[in-house]
Design brief:
The protein has 421 residues and is α/β, with parallel strands linked by helices. The chain has 3 domains: 58 residues, Alpha-Beta Plaits, CATH 3.30.70.20; 194 residues, 3-Layer(aba) Sandwich (Rossmann fold); 135 residues, 3-Layer(aba) Sandwich (Rossmann fold). Helix content is 29%, strand content 24%. It is built from 13 helices and 21 strands. The chain has a 7-stranded parallel beta sheet with strand order 11-15-10-5-8-9-16, sandwiched between helices. A 5-stranded parallel beta sheet has the order 18-17-19-20-21. Helix 7 packs across helix 8 and helix 10 runs parallel beside helix 13. The chain is flat, with a radius of gyration of 30 Å. It starts with a strand and ends with a helix. 38% of the residues are buried. It binds flavin-adenine dinucleotide. The site of flavin-adenine dinucleotide has 29 residues, from helix 11, helix 12, strand 20 and helix 13.
C-alpha cells in the first residue's frame, strides 16, 4: 500500500494536483500542498500534472492489524437445493458389533452443535445385526438413527460403506456429517466426501459453529503443527469433519433414552464390489499398546536419555496399571516403538493422569495429551513449555523423581493391604 508524498521545497502552490485528485486527498495549507494519506487511492492522476515533479508515490506500512474477515465475507448464499440440507449426523463406527468410543464422543460434540443450530442430532449405524448399537446411540443422545443392516456391511469395505453413506446423505440431506479419525473413518470420510463433491477437514481438534452462516468451524493443526487453522466448507453440503479419538469428552449415557429409527435397504449387488473380505489380521503391537483407553500413561521423552531409561517408566506404569507413552523425540531416538507415540503424528490420549517425564512440551506433543484430566510434568528445565499445561510440575531429574513416586505408590498399596486385613 502507498500514498502520494510531497517534496515541500519543490511545491510552487499551483494547485493543479488538488484539482485533479478525485478523492480529495490533496489540499492547500499556507500555499503548499498537503496530503491526507487515508484518502489517497494511489490513482496517480496528480503525478503527471505537477510541473515541478514535487509529487511521488511511496509505500507505507499498514497501520494496525489487517482488516478482519468475517464468515459472511466468505460465504456466498447457498443455492436453494443446498439450503435445504439440515441437521447434524454422526457415523457410529463399529467393528464386530462393538462400537468405537470416538462415535459417542462425537455424539456429545454433535449434540452441542445441533442445539446451537436448533436442529436434530442423528446417528448413522451401518453393519449386520446392529440393533444393539442403534439402542446405544439413543442412550448417548442421538434423537434419530438412520440404519442400514445388511450382510454386505458386516466387515468394512470402502465401496459398500461409501455407497450406503451416499444413499442416506442424498436422501435425507444433513448439513453436517462427523466421523472418527480412525483407520476406518479416515478411509471412509475421504471416499464419501469425494463422491458427494463436498469438503472434508481431517483430524480436527476443535469444532464450533457460526450460527448466522450455519458454517462449521473446523480447527486442526496446520503447517507442521505450528499454527491452529480454522477451516470452513462454506459453499458445499454436507460439511464433513473427522475428529480423533479422545479429543472430545464422552457424554453421559442415559439407558432410558430412545428415539426414532429410520431403516433403509442397501440394495447393492455383491458383483458390483471389487474388494472381497478374506480375513482380518490384527496388528499385534497395536493390540498390545492401548494408549487411547489407558487411564494412566507414563510418557518419556528425549530427557530419558537411553532405551534402558524407559525401564523405570515402565515400572511406574505397571504400578499404576497404565501404559507407557513417548514423545516423537524418544521414538526417533529408537528407544520405544511408534505405537507408543503421543501427539500430532501419534495418538491422541485422554487419561486420568498423564506423566510427562523428560518431555519439553512442543505443540505437536501437547495436541495429543493436553486434554488429560491431570498432567504431571517432570523436567529439569523450569522454563520447559510442558509446565504451561501441567496440573502439577516437578522441577527435577526424572531418575530421582520417578523412583520416589514408585516407592510412595508401593508403600501406599502395602499400607492399604494391611488396613484391609
Ligand atoms: C510435523 C511434525 C509432527 C510432529 N509430531 C509429533 C508428535 O506426534 N509427538 C511428539 O512428541 N512430537 C512431535 N513432533 C516433534 C516435536 O516438535 C518435538 O521435536 C518433540 O516432541 C520433542 O521431543 P522431547 O520433548 O522428547 O525432546 P526435547 O524437546 O529434546 O525435550 C527433552 C526435555 O527433557 C528434559 N530433560 C533432560 N534430561 C532430563 C532429566 N534427567 N529429567 C527430567 N527432564 C530432563 C529437557 O529439559 C527437555 O525439556 C512433530 C514435529 C513435526 C514437525
Amino acid at each position: 500500500m502507498g500514498y502520494v508524498h510531497i517534496k515541500k521545497e519543490k511545491c510552487i502552490g499551483c494547485e493543479q494536483c488538488v484539482v485533479v485528485c478525485p478523492f480529495e486527498a490533496l489540499f492547500m495549507v499556507k500555499g503548499k500542498v498537503e496530503v491526507e494519506p487515508e484518502k489517497c487511492r494511489e490513482c496517480r492522476k496528480c503525478l503527471p500534472v505537477c510541473p515541478t515533479e514535487a509529487l511521488y508515490l511511496e509505500r507505507r506500512e499498514r497501520r494496525g492489524p489487517p482488516p478482519e474477515h468475517g464468515i459472511s465475507d466468505i460465504v456466498v448464499e447457498l443455492p436453494p437445493e443446498l439450503g435445504r440440507y439440515k441437521g447434524v449426523w454422526v457415523l457410529v463406527e463399529q467393528e464386530d458389533g462393538k462400537p468405537h468410543s470416538v462415535s459417542w464422543e462425537l455424539i456429545g460434540e454433535g449434540m452441542k452443535i445441533a442445539q446451537k443450530l436448533d436442529v436434530e442430532l442423528s446417528a448413522i449405524v451401518l453393519g449386520e445385526g446392529v440393533e444393539h448399537i442403534v439402542e446405544e446411540a439413543f442412550h448417548y443422545g442421538a434423537e434419530k438413527v438412520y440404519a442400514i443392516d445388511d450382510p454386505m456391511l458386516n466387515n468394512y469395505r470402502t465401496y459398500p460403506y461409501t455407497f450406503a453413506m451416499r444413499k442416506l446423505v442424498n436422501k435425507y440431506k444433513p448439513e453436517i456429517l462427523l466421523m472418527g479419525a480412525t483407520s476406518l473413518g479416515r478411509d471412509l470420510a475421504g471416499a464419501v466426501a469425494t463422491s458427494l463433491k463436498t469438503g472434508l477437514t481431517a483430524d480436527c481438534t476443535k469444532l464450533d459453529i457460526d450460527t448466522g452462516a450455519r458454517v462449521l468451524l473446523q480447527t486442526r493443526p496446520a503447517f507442521g503443527g505450528n499454527i491452529m487453522a480454522t477451516i470452513i466448507c462454506a459453499n458445499h453440503r454436507p460439511q464433513m469433519a473427522t475428529v480423533r479419538p479422545r479429543v472430545m469428552a464422552k457424554p453421559y449415557k442415559d439407558d432410558s433414552k430412545t428415539g426414532k429409527v429410520i431403516t433403509e435397504k442397501l440394495a447393492l449387488e455383491e458383483e458390483k464390489v471389487k474388494t472381497k473380505f478374506i480375513e482380518f489380521i490384527a496388528d499385534e503391537i497395536a493390540e498390545v499398546v492401548n494408549l487411547e483407553d489407558a487411564e494412566y500413561i507414563v510418557a518419556g521423552g528425549r530427557g530419558v536419555g537411553c532405551k534402558d531409561g524407559f525401564g523405570v517408566l515402565r515400572e511406574l506404569a505397571e504400578a499404576l496399571g497404565g501404559e507407557v507413552g513417548a514423545s516423537r523425540g524418544a521414538v526417533e531416538s529408537g528407544w520405544v516403538t511408534y505405537e507408543h507415540q503421543v501427539g500430532q503424528t501419534g495418538k491422541t490420549v485422554r487419561p486420568k493422569v498423564y506423566f510427562a517425564c523428560g518431555i519439553s512440551g512442543a505443540i505437536q506433543h501437547l495436541v495429543g495429551m493436553q486434554n488429560s484430566d491431570v498432567i504431571v510434568a517432570i523436567n529439569t528445565d523450569e522454563t520447559a513449555p510442558i509446565f504451561n499445561v501441567a496440573t502439577y510440575g516437578i522441577i527435577g531429574d526424572l531418575y530421582k523423581v520417578v523412583p520416589e513416586i514408585i516407592k510412595q505408590i508401593k508403600n501406599h498399596k502395602t499400607q492399604a493391604m494391611k488396613e484391609g486385613e
